[in-house]
Write a structure and sequence with these properties.
By secondary structure, this protein is an alpha/beta fold. The protein has 3 domains: 160 residues, Adenylosuccinate Synthetase, Chain A, domain 1 (3-Layer(aba) Sandwich); 94 residues, Adenylosuccinate Synthetase, subunit A, domain 2, CATH 1.10.300; 157 residues, Adenylosuccinate Synthetase, Chain A, domain 3. A hairpin with a 7-residue loop joins β19 and β20. α3 packs across α4 and α5 crosses α6.
């Protein structure tokens, strides 16, 4: 298998975890390269459901090595909770999971800042998960972050924590009028994490490059989606890391020449969580119907997702920004009961038709979608395992998507189980 990056082509929640789980069977190593415990990948294996936040989806295969790269915002408490949960379910983690010493740590004061900032925004909230991810990346960019490797240098670690807490408490109390936190309490808590996490500490970049040199294959797992990328997304309604395929190089510590292919993941429709413009969004009654049918609730927060028609304008941009070789289309079965389906092929703005995704988020919020309407297939796709066994109208819908976004479709998901997958080989 080639070294492949799996990225979301929409606003996240596209089903990347399920696709990584499928592809992991043929990979040697699975590496998560960005995001934090604000991400949620849901995987169903027979009658069991797993929700992963930091641990790569490949952990469910007993023979695979998994890595958390330096680009991840690492919350030790969340990681330990996830490891314990997996081991209780007889998934062996120790000796198979390795965490980059360069990954920046999330602290309780990051969570407090996240909450305080969102509260201060009032009606203009971004819609964060309050997991402290944004403030963690802020500290990283501001060169005051504390890395996983620092945890194992107790004296230097304590100095850095105390300095950060002094600054954060001043900001929390004086500017946000928010509660502060004790540095000594953090030091006691994180001292307890130290022995539990020592066995996971590694130079993952060196491990990955050595494995690639030996001919082993790596699957790079992204979190969130292209339009939550801090550069290419609908800023400021974005996450705080680079979610696109290029982030795999900086977030995992491998050169671009080591990556052979990029698989984009998109739903057969569009969803988004939190605030921000959404041109193809359904009216609430229609959104509720699709949300219930597709179980569109956040894996991390449980928040209901906003739902709308497939937006080919944004996915076309995602194909270009990521260098997508092929697409995996998920949740195709959710549209089985639709009499008609629509694909957004452009935006209408001030009397003009836009074929490219606007760079200004304020413009996007004023765009009206231009649709191509197609007949639905009104037939269950759940049992289909072959492309030519799909209803004719379902195939036509997928072909239209491929034509509009400029990428072939290689995988179609028609259910949440591993085996409910069509591998397109036509």
């Amino acid at each position: 298998m080639e070294n492949t990056v799996v990225v979301g082509a929409q606003w996240g929640d596209e089903g990347k975890g399920r696709i990584v789980d499928l592809l992991a069977e043929k990979a040697d190593i699975i590496c998560r390269f960005q995001g934090g415990a604000n991400a949620g990948h849901t995987i169903k294996v027979r009658d069991q459901e797993f929700v992963l936040h930091l641990v790569p989806s490949g952990i469910l295969y007993p023979s695979k090595l998994c890595m958390i790269g330096n680009g991840v915002a690492l919350d030790p408490a969340a990681l330990l909770e996830e490891i314990q949960h997996l081991e209780k379910r007889r998934i062996k983690v120790k000796g198979r999971l390795f965490v980059s010493g360069l990954a920046h740590l999330t602290f309780p004061y990051h969570r407090l800042l996240d909450e305080a900032k969102e509260h201060a925004r009032g009606t203009k909230k971004i819609g964060t998960t309050h997991r402290g991810i944004g403030p963690t990346y802020t500290d990283k960019a501001g060169r005051v972050g504390i890395r996983f490797a620092d945890l194992f240098e107790p004296k230097a670690f304590a100095e850095k924590v105390r300095a950060n807490v002094r600054e954060k408490n001043f900001l929390l109390s004086q500017f946000y009028k928010w509660k502060g936190i004790s540095a000594e309490g953090i030091l006691r808590r994180y001292a307890g994490y130290r022995p539990k996490l020592k066995g996971f500490f590694a130079d993952t970049s060196a491990m990955l490059n050595s494995a690639i040199a030996q001919g082993k294959s790596v699957l790079f797992e992204g979190a969130q989606g292209t339009f939550l990328d801090v550069d290419y997304g609908t800023y400021p309604f974005v996450t705080s890391s680079n979610t696109i395929a290029g982030g795999a190089c900086t977030g995992a510590g491998v050169g671009p020449t080591k990556i052979h292919s990029v698989l984009g993941v998109a739903k057969a429709y569009t969803t988004r969580v939190g605030a921000g413009p959404f041109p193809t969004e359904f009216p609430e009654a229609q959104a509720k119907e699709l949300r219930d049918r597709g179980n569109e609730f956040g894996a991390t927060t449980g928040r209901p997702r906003r739902c709308g028609w497939f937006d080919a304008v944004m996915v076309r941009q995602a194909v270009r920004a990521n260098g997508v070789d092929s697409l995996a289309i998920t949740k195709m079965d959710v549209l089985d009961e639709m009499v008609k389906v629509k694909i957004c092929t452009g935006y209408k703005y001030k009397g003009k038709i836009l074929r490219e995704f606007p760079m200004a988020t304020s413009i996007l919020g004023k765009c009206q979608p231009v649709y191509e309407e197609l007949r639905g297939w009104y037939k269950s796709t759940r049992g289909v395992r072959n492309w030519f066994d799909l209803p004719v109208q379902a195939r036509y819908y997928l072909e239209k998507i491929a034509e509009q976004v400029g990428a072939k479709i290689s995988i179609v998901s028609v259910g949440c189980e591993r085996e409910e997958t069509i591998w397109v080989t036509r």
